[in-house]
């Protein structure tokens, strides 16, 4: 009679062997009674683990043992998503031929198309679309395939997705829209392309605000310049009422803050958490920027945000 510990040991060994492509060991473990559907939190199932590594012969063995081709588990989601994230084109084709569902949704990546788009695997994206993938499916933190591609700056892939009919203003996921995702990454050329294609300049994401504020947080000066040239409101409040100036000040981006002030940024605007630009700069001990803000008329006694005043923030 096998103990629970023996079952657990075989399960762990089988998944570990699958994740490393140890075909012979996997065969032995299966012959000894290891469960082909064994799961763990990280690798998911044996088939998902093998798919992530691109181990075609091992995947075929597991499928012969009736491994669930559409199982959802672990950080990679499904076997198809796992293979997609690694760019394993031949394996993806096999999985699709064997019945993998191209539109299954699971945590993290969302769909196989989103996984491929996030990692810039253009050939896989084309394969998925040819096999009926939902171009505008919304899932996971990355939202859509277009948002995922934009997040990592894959401009040619983003252009292809747009040509195929991707919704440029789809609003979903952690980053909100493709424009906000591209602005977050500082991909100036992609930002220009998205704006030319009709991206909503003022769209907002719950956490990151709008394209201008997130670009200001990240000190992407060229992106900020493009957004302002295209008509972004320098004093627009987004997220927790943060403005571009408050965002730049909180991170100590002195040069960018000066540029925003020159563009008409209101020096005493207030946000829920950061307070004012002066309070935000004081909280971060950005002395040079504090001096500049005071010279530009910042109210040294303004009360706002979590710190309360610039003096309290400085402590």
Automatic annotation (TrEMBL):
The keyword Transport does not apply. SMART domains: ANK. PANTHER family: ANK_REP_REGION DOMAIN-CONTAINING PROTEIN, ANKYRIN REPEAT, PH AND SEC7 DOMAIN CONTAINING PROTEIN SECG-RELATED. Signal peptide: none annotated. Keywords: ANK repeat, Repeat. SUPFAM superfamilies: Ankyrin repeat (SSF48403). This is Uncharacterized protein. It holds the Pfam family Ank. ANK repeats lie at residues 9-41, 75-107, 108-140, 141-173, 174-206, 207-239, 240-272, 273-305.
